[in-house]
Amino acid sequence: MKVHRTVEIAAPPERVYEVVMDPERLEDWVTIHHHLEDAPNGRLKQGSKLTQCLKLAGTKFNVRWTVVENEPCIRVVWEGRGPVASHARVVYEFEGNGGGTTFSYLNE
Predict the structure, then answer these.
(1) Residue-wise pLDDT tens digits, 55-108
(2) Three-class SS of residue 95?
């Protein structure tokens, strides 16, 4: 299954990147985020790992994420492992659009 969304944000790519790469801000924009089990302090970078508890349809489960690609303010790729050998790949893409950002999100 794939989920792909693109949204226009009235902030420059640098500011959007700061928010999405701060694990403490996940609760501000990830609708199924429940809490962090563990995460590094500060902004994430390539190789960073975190464990996130998600809640979907009333069920909580953990996903262990690794940032596998990080081109600041351009493209970020995460790979995640969850319960029952499930896995996910998430791609963020940032494009400046005259003072704002076109932010694309793909979850496979």
Answers:
(1) 999 999 999 999 999 999 999 999 999 999 999 999 999 999 988 999 999 999
(2) strand
Pairing label, strands 101-107, 49-56: unpaired
In contact, 89 and 108? CB cutoff 8 Å: yes
Give the DSSP letter of residue 78. Answer: E
Question: Strands, DSSP E only, in the chain?
Answer: 3-9, 33-38, 49-56, 59-71, 75-81, 87-96, 101-107
Give 77's Cβ-side CA count (13 Å radius): 5
- Tell me which residue has tokens 């640098």: 14
Question: Whole-prediction pTM value?
Answer: 0.89
